[in-house]
From TrEMBL:
Record lineage: Eukaryota, Fungi, Dikarya, Basidiomycota, Agaricomycotina
Pfam families in the cross-refs: Acetyltransf_2
UniProt cross-references to Gene3D superfamilies, sorted A to Z: 3.30.2140.20
Name of this protein: Peptidase-S9 domain-containing protein
An example Gene Ontology molecular-function term: acetyltransferase activity
PANTHER family xrefs: ARYLAMINE N-ACETYLTRANSFERASE 4-RELATED (PTHR11786:SF0), N-HYDROXYARYLAMINE O-ACETYLTRANSFERASE (PTHR11786)
Family: Belongs to the arylamine N-acetyltransferase family.
InterPro entries linked to this entry: Arylamine_N-AcTrfase, Arylamine_NAT_domain_sf, Papain-like_cys_pep_sf
């Protein structure tokens, strides 16, 4: 691969490609002439999350294996098969499949640029004790490596910029959230009253026993609110409100050039310590459900057999619980898996 002469060049879809993207996310082609706005960003973002899944299947099944006789699926058997960046366009748009963040968010960014949005592609540090209160849990502020791509979008006529993330998966914020340097941060209710999120401008929070960085400056931390099941969130959320804030990720507002994402992609998808190769996941928001999510998950654990669990979480019906409901099981073999992914997730093989 030749080294790019312009390291910060930003891919942008043409009109035909943007039209195909709109069709993929079930929005009308009349939007092609829409100017950038918060309303348009919100519409594109939610429809994207409802139609395009986070999907680790390319890491586990070589494409040729889908077309042969039904065979067992072995995790990580397609180690280097995950597409990177906007090269995932055909897989996402024409094959109706998904990918992980370094593919989905890069492709979504190129789509947003068609409309005139100014999009910065960033990398974040994921929180490794998801769902726990870092101020009381033994894990404390347990941060992982830079393994998540996210986007910050604005447009020429707006002084505001917004975080949008098309590929976090379960717990995904499905509305744009404004970046602010106000110490209180920006807090919003999600797609239903049992979801709340906060974006805070701060240096990365660390436990008292952790060594602080020699050089450090503020970035942004996205938090999700956890409260007793059945607790509806209302604004403002204060220190006296039930529940606690648990981080999803922390990021610095520094644009990352596409070539650098090759390093992050390698560590996540093809390095010997790659984390995404350890599990099978397909997940997306159910259209029109108010935030309910349908997911398929499998990881190799003793005593659980070779079946992937399919389940629904979130939405108004979930009332703030992450407990799975409407559970189904699918054999980890290409035959039944291909049939299920075609029928339930719309994959094209």
């Amino acid at each position: 691969m030749a080294w790019p002469p312009d390291p910060y060049v930003q891919p942008k879809l043409n009109r035909a490609e943007a039209g195909a993207y709109l069709e993929r996310i079930k929005l009308p082609s009349t939007l092609l002439d829409s100017p950038p706005s918060l309303s348009l960003l919100s519409t594109l973002f939610l429809s994207h999350l409802e139609q395009i899944p986070k999907d680790t299947t390319p890491l586990h099944v070589p494409e040729a294996q889908w077309n042969g006789p039904s065979t067992p699926i072995k995790l990580s058997s397609a180690f280097t098969n995950m597409p990177l960046g906007a090269s995932a366009f055909d897989r996402i748009i024409h094959e109706n499949k998904g990918a992980f963040c370094f593919s989905i968010n890069a492709t979504f960014a190129s789509f947003l640029r068609y409309f005139g949005f100014t999009v910065s592609e960033l990398v974040g540090r994921s929180f490794k004790s998801l769902g726990n209160d870092p101020t009381t849990h033994p894990d404390g502020w347990k941060w992982g490596t830079l393994t998540h791509q996210l986007l910050v979008a604005g447009w020429p006529d707006s002084a505001e910029r917004y975080l949008v993330d098309g590929a976090w998966g379960p717990g995904n914020l499905a509305k744009p959230i404004k970046l602010t340097t106000d110490p209180a941060g920006e807090t919003i209710i999600g797609l239903n009253e049992f979801e709340a999120y906060r974006l805070v401008y701060e240096t990365i929070p660390l436990s008292p026993n952790m060594t602080p960085p020699v050089d450090n400056f503020p970035g942004y931390t996205l938090y999700r609110r956890f409260a007793p099941i059945g607790t509806a969130h209302t604004l403002p959320i204060t220190a006296n409100s039930p529940g606690y804030w648990s981080p999803l990720f922390h990021f610095l507002l520094i644009s990352v050039p596409p070539a650098d994402f090759m390093l992050y992609h390698h560590f996540s998808a093809s390095h010997e310590m790659a984390s995404f190769t350890a599990f099978w996941l397909i997940t997306r928001i159910i259209p029109g459900s108010g935030g309910a999510r349908r997911s398929m998950m499998y990881a190799e654990k003793e005593g659980q057999g070779k079946r992937a669990k399919v389940y629904t979480t979130g939405g108004p019906e979930g009332r703030g619980s992450d407990e799975g409901r409407d559970v189904e099981w699918v054999e980890m073999e290409t035959g039944p898996m291909k049939e299920y992914l075609t029928k339930e997730f719309g994959f094209k093989f």
